[in-house]
Design goal:
With 421 residues, the chain is an alpha/beta fold. It is built from 16 helices and 16 strands. The longest helix is centred in the N-terminal third of the chain and has 33 residues, at 2-34.
Length: 421
């Protein structure tokens, strides 16, 4: 029995050794697979030495070597690019905004407030196309904030001398941007002066004897759309009376799509000074199709079909009431007597100016007085029964392009008359 036990005991020892070998062996084999061979011995007896290729071995050798034995790293040879070299040779340099830089926030606070804009004389232009149009028209830049250097290199280099160029993160531009998809560049410009601007030659060549007067327009989107229509129709000038929304507000600029730099725009004009901006013999026409005043003066045919607006002329309701003259005893009407006609009848015999009023307050009394003094009329755009009135931007577009059509027909008639005397 003892011999059997001893036999079993001796038989178990190799098994225990094998179990211990299985527990440690795989780790050693894994470490062996990770190592790179130092020498390779072929069956023919040839020995080839292998150079260590791992980065770990290289770092180990560099750490063991002294600082004097380490070779300095050679910089990468980057092929030269002619565009950056030309950009640098022109003397342009840009700064990089570090965390905590408040230059962008301080400037945005100024240009986004109308009182600050008027006090500092600065405006904000956003987007590569709008900035390029402004530079082409002669606007004076003060600073550019951009997220990629390529956006600055697209601009004319001669226009960037002396301008602060500051590279910021795109997230910072996105925080201050009014666009849904910011373009990564913002420009701070001096408030443009229409006298010093250089407008496109094509616009000046196709300019018409047609002006636009914006009277008490308060909606930024409407004003920007009106300016865009004025540039498309070929207006020679746009006047903004005092009380209109700021023409350099970001929403107006976004809706204008560059029209600010295609047609001269004069803002904050007092009504007493409006005639000085008009050419000689200019007739002023008022776009107004609302009120009982228009309905009474329209022809019976139009009234029978309902092509009039039935909303009361609320702003001048107190002037519609007749008042007795103290000297003569006769009754008089304070509302200027301006004839009403349909917009599609000819009204461009002389240089014409069209007045567009705001949707909330309508046209002012001064506009009707100016129309009366110049022999102008009130232009009625017929609308279907039950419709209150048209949007001011739509009414301006209709009248301006109708005026353009009439001027083109008139010019064709004159050219045929000169050809066949």
């Amino acid at each position: 029995m003892a011999a059997l036990v001893n036999g079993v005991g001796w038989g178990m020892r190799p098994l225990l050794l094998v179990l211990q070998t299985r527990d440690v062996g795989p780790r050693r084999w894994v470490r062996a697979l990770r190592r790179s061979p130092v020498k390779v011995v072929f069956p023919s007896g040839q020995v080839v030495e292998q150079k260590p290729s791992s980065g770990k071995q290289r770092r180990k050798e560099e750490s063991e070597a002294g600082p004097q034995e380490q070779q300095p790293k050679q910089p990468l040879q980057v092929p030269s690019n002619p565009t950056p070299s030309a950009w640098e040779e022109s003397g342009l340099r840009y700064e990089r905004a570090f965390p905590g830089d408040k230059r962008l926030s301080s400037v945005m606070t100024i240009v986004k407030s109308r009182p600050f804009r008027e006090k500092k004389g600065k405006i904000l232009l956003e987007g590569r196309r709008l900035i390029a149009d402004a530079l082409k028209a002669g606007a004076v830049p003060k600073a550019f904030f951009f997220s990629r250097l390529e956006y600055i290199k697209e601009l004319p280099m001669d226009k960037l001398k002396g301008v602060s160029l500051i590279k910021v993160k795109f997230e910072d531009i996105k925080d201050w941007s009014d666009l849904v998809t910011p373009q990564g560049i913002m420009g701070i410009f001096a408030k443009p002066d229409h006298v010093k601007m250089t407008y496109p030659e094509t616009h000046l060549r196709h300019s018409l004897p047609l002006l636009l007067i914006c009277d008490n327009l308060r909606d930024p989107g409407n004003l920007g759309t009106i300016l865009r229509s004025a540039a498309g129709a070929g207006c020679s000038k746009v006047l903004l009376t005092k009380g209109c929304v700021d023409v350099w507000e970001p929403k107006v600029l976004r809706a204008g799509m560059g029209a600010h730099f295609q047609v001269p725009v004069v803002s904050n004009v007092e009504w007493e000074a409006v005639p000085s901006y008009l050419p000689a013999d200019t007739r002023v026409y008022v776009a107004d199709n609302c009120g009982l005043y228009s309905q009474v003066q329209m022809s019976n045919k139009a009234s029978d079909h309902g092509w009039v607006c039935d909303r009361r002329f609320l702003k001048f309701h107190k002037y519609e009431e007749e008042e007795e003259d103290l000297e003569t005893g006769a009754k008089k009407d304070w509302l200027p007597d301006v004839e009403v006609q349909s917009y599609d009848l000819e009204w461009t015999e002389a240089p014409a100016a069209v007045v567009i009023g705001g949707e909330t307050h309508g046209v002012s009394l001064e506009s009707l007085q100016l129309a009366e003094s110049t022999g102008g009329r009130r232009l009625l755009i017929p609308v279907a029964p039950g419709v209150d009135s048209l949007n001011s931007a739509m009414a301006a577009s209709i009248l301006l392009f109708e005026g353009k059509r009439q001027l083109r027909i008139r010019e064709e008639r004159l050219s045929r008359g000169r050809s066949y005397p």
